[in-house]
Amino acid sequence: MSRQYRIILKRDEVKLLKNVASAGPESKAGRYARALLMLDKGEFGEYRWTISKVSENLGVSDRTLSHIKERFVNTGIEAALGRMPRSRQARPSRFMHIEDAMVKLAASTPPDGHRKWTLRLLAGKAVEKGIVDDISHMTVWRILKNNTGRG
Q1: Cα dihedral sign for 131, 134, 137, 138?
Q2: Distances from the Cα of 99 to the Cαs of 23, 55, 103, 131, in angstroms?
Q3: Whose CA is closest to 146, among 110, 84, 108, 92?
Q4: Lesser CB count within 10 Å: N end or C end of the chain?
Q5: Are residues 79 and 67 in contact, defined by beta-carbon separation less than 8 angstroms?
Q6: Which residues contact 132 (CB under 8 A, 6 or more apart)?
């Protein structure tokens, strides 16, 4: 059987949750705030509903409500509302070493016979110049998309 978490809110937490619930009733944070208010077993609790009743009323699964309760008890109100910052950083690009060269190439004049660079033309020229061994036009697109405004 899973561990049971009891929600006991303080007066200031109830006030904060009511503000969040009324500000964005259709948002995830608003729904989670209403769930915490409904599950509150403390002296300021107005509802004191069961998980099943809250689940039925809000359209949130029982398991999700259990997770919200667990996050509230273990890490606090911000985490329970789904606002906790990610602990992991994004993985760096595998093409970091070639990004600058690709951006420079795209900013240069296109080869004779072409009015402008195309993605396939950039991919072919990058291979021809030895910037990379092999690259797809979609990878060139991603590199340029993520590096617009640089340089």
Answers
A1: negative
A2: 42, 48, 6, 10
A3: 92
A4: N
A5: no
A6: 95, 98, 126
* Mean pLDDT in residue range 16-33: 86
At residue 78 the predicted structure's pLDDT band, cuts being 50, 70 and 90, is: confident
Using CA atoms, how far residue 127 sits from 27, 43, 123, in Å, is: 47, 70, 6
**Distance separating alpha carbons of residues 143 and 1, to the nearest angstrom:** 49
Kindly report, residue by residue over 42-58, the tens digit of the pLDDT: 888 788 788 899 999 99
Q: What's the whole-model pTM score?
A: 0.55
Both tokens of 73, joined, read 């008890």
Residue of 131, 129, 107, 127 whose CA lies nearest to 117: 107
